[in-house]
Design goal:
Elements (H helix, E strand, L loop, with lengths): L8 H4 L10 H13 L5 E5 L5 H10 L2 E6 L2 H9 L3 E4 L11 E6 L15 H6 L7 H13 E12 L4 H10 L2 E10 L4 E9 L3
Parallel strand pairs: 1-2, 1-4, 2-3, 4-5
Antiparallel strand pairs: 5-7, 6-7
Helix pairs in contact: 2-3
Length: 198
């Protein structure tokens, strides 16, 4: 086989530049939807295709908004009927804006040399330890969450749930595991984060 005959990475991987619903999306959507009331204002951070936001909206009849850094994701989410804003995490929102915030973060540890250097890599990789984006999120999310609100955060055993729990507690949240699901190389967990008011 010559170099010309070998398939290119770009041909093997999905060419789509928007993260599509997978097991993690389904677990977050169904867990959060059970907790959302119809009078809640909900923000789906890193909304991707808009699947989680759409599911929660349809199940709860709440006002749900999406935010993503990827302009292609925002466009796809809007096609699903989700009001989506292009922004970095929660930076563009005012204090006490939301009752509920959902987040399926980029949580895979990144390869030192990078892999794709595109929107899909941005959607799935969370820095050297897989927690960089989660830490940035935790640093600011308390500002936009109402005092009696809740966050539903997807975490993988690949990322180190204990370290995420410690970071969330340091940021002023009480952490409860609401759901978990085992897959071939990881266990997925849904953390509920409630402000402690401290």
């Amino acid at each position: 086989m010559t170099d010309e005959d070998e398939p290119r990475l770009a041909d093997i991987r999905e060419t789509d530049q928007v993260y599509q619903p997978a097991e993690d999306s389904h677990l977050l959507a169904k867990t959060a939807a059970k907790e959302v009331g119809k009078d809640n204002r909900v923000l789906d951070v890193g909304t991707g295709s808009g699947y989680v936001a759409q599911f929660v909206q349809e199940q709860s009849d709440a006002a749900v908004f999406g935010v993503d850094l990827n302009p292609l994701a925002c466009a796809e989410a809007r096609e699903r009927g989700v009001q989506a804003l292009r922004a970095d995490l929660v930076s563009s929102f005012c204090r006490d804006s939301f009752d509920v915030i959902t987040f399926n973060p980029p949580y895979l540890p990144s390869a030192p040399e990078g892999v794709w250097d595109d929107w899909m890599e941005t959607a799935v990789t969370g820095g050297e330890d897989g927690r960089a984006v989660i830490k940035d999120f935790l640093d600011d999310v308390g500002r936009v969450l109402r005092p009696d609100g809740a966050i539903y955060l997807l975490v993988s055993t690949v990322t180190g749930p204990e370290a995420v729990t410690e970071a969330a507690e340091s940021a002023g949240f009480e952490v409860t595991t609401l759901a978990e699901e085992s897959h071939s190389f990881e266990k997925l967990l849904i953390f509920q984060l409630i402000p402690t008011g401290e």
